[in-house]
Amino acid sequence: MKLRLYSLLVNRSPAVKRRYESFVNAHRRLHACFPAVSWVYLILLNIKYVILQVPDIPTVKTGNESGSFAVSAEEISEQLCRCDVVSFDIFDTLIIRPFSKPEDLFYIVGEKLGVPDFRRLRIEAERTARAEKAAKGQGSETDIYEIYAVLSRMIGICAETGIEAELQTELELCRANPFMKKVFDNVKTAGKTIIISSDMYLPRSFILLLLEKNGFNGYSELYLSNEKGCGKWDGGLYSIICSDHSGKSIAHIGDNTFSDVQNAKKHGLSPFHYPNVNRSGEKFRPRNMSPITGSAYSGIVNSTLYTERFPPAFEYGFKCGGLLILGFCGFIHEHSLRFGADKILFLSRDGYIVKKVYDMLYPEDKTEYVYWSRAAAAKLCADIFPQEYVRRFIVQKSEKGFTIGEILRSMGISGISLPFDPAEKLTRKNMEKLIAEIHLHMPEISSCLKTNRRGAERYFREILKNCCRAVTVDCGWAGSGNIMLEAFVRCTMGADIAFKGLLAGSNSANQDDSDFSETYFKTDRLAAYCFSSDANRNFYEFHYPAKKHNVFFELLFGAPCPSCTGFDENGPVFDNEAENSELINEIHNGELEFIRRYLDIFGNIPYMLKISGSDAYAPFAAALSDGGDHLRGIFRSAVFDELADGRKEKV
Question: Which of 44, 81, 327, 560 could be joined to 581 by an S-S link, Cβ 3.0–4.6 Å?
Fold first, then answer.
């Protein structure tokens, strides 16, 4: 009956479920001792979101988060050291679980035990264990043995097996809070007496092991509520601490405003509130991610940005690029295996950071960083795709202030005589005439570009030696990089090589040529990770190139080196400037740091590396929820070459 009621009142509405679970998580002791408060809150949520059907419009805040906790570790240490004894809370203070909600760790435990819906069952078992003790007049403190005694009745697993799985998972995934580790070490160096106190159901032997593993040693005593029969939430644990350290001033630091601050102060301790990193970061995190990946992503981001300080571009890479690049690499590996690729070609410049991460993850695969660009491809395939040649160099540059002489130079055909004044500006009026002349002179143009093709052919023959099937990797959007490289290799070089192109994202619905490569996607010659017309339609319709979404997205993939503008006899020819190299390096540092931390925690859990394109794109979409104002502020000094002509424009 209780489960049915829970399903009816909680699980029926996502808005109710999210808010109710967040409330219970933030007020666990209150919920355990006075469940009526939670039920009243739940009824109010149902009135609002189910009966009145108030729209649930989750707002995501944008802005710099790193270093937002204004007090430094040194300042906190100094304040704590004014007392004789310093008490530290454990979870969410000294130790951080890698999830936005601590109970999400039960997903991992449930998978190990092979029990579906384990997270909910484990939460319910703890509530029941506390209620049973309270009913017997034994207080509401419980331990993991009593919890699993209840749980074994509910799901029929051996209690010892379940306990072992949970303790092992906690030990594998929990990490020291780097900020509080500094505080702890500073207090220890100052010679203060350190104690650790926690409202805790886990056994002493395990807590000792967890603290030691994460570098916390040198404390004098460990106070656990499940041993003392009372906790910080009811003040009983503080009374014991004060009795044990009579006559000494005691400071306490923790994340819970009620247990760690109000009750500590009430019982004569000097409290210091350390804001919970997950509650601090919650308003910045996307709400539309899958439960496990979303919680793991948010947990890692929160526990990093609210414990350390980083530059804004690093933070952008950490928040928006790390999960994206990691997931994209898994997507590439899966498709390459299925395709039977002999080699994976990462096209410059957007393939730079992807290749670096891919080689780290899958060192056994044959990969190559290939110099390529829209401009180079259009020139090499001018006789194969003349319409793309004129679109890239003429149509897209009309009314942009370019002279016809500049246009012809960018096309690589400035030596061809055409009936135009080189100083004349390219406009919509003379554009069609210029296009007609280009088509008319195509044989001459093809001959003019012969050196360009000869250098490229020599370059690619070496790269594709002994290769029958190749995968190309690019950021996006129409997939023309793959399409034109395949055409050049097969038509111009005469090499019988099968190609498949993998993109982070396709053209979006908000483009005139949104269906440019539709048949390539339908025939599986192209595949997109984050969105396409067939997958993740919400992001396919959200992504808006005219609002600079492409520019901000490509910054996550860029390379700190000049772009390839074409080929000569010696191989690739490059632009004379590596724009945004400092910013790009910072972004890459953020991406690599996220990936390092994610793999450090979840690298031995294969299914945690299966990251959907929707989950990977969600943080980027959240960063644009203010219309891109925050990102424009970060990258106000950045420039981009939108038309691949060498002219740099500011974001």
Answer: 560
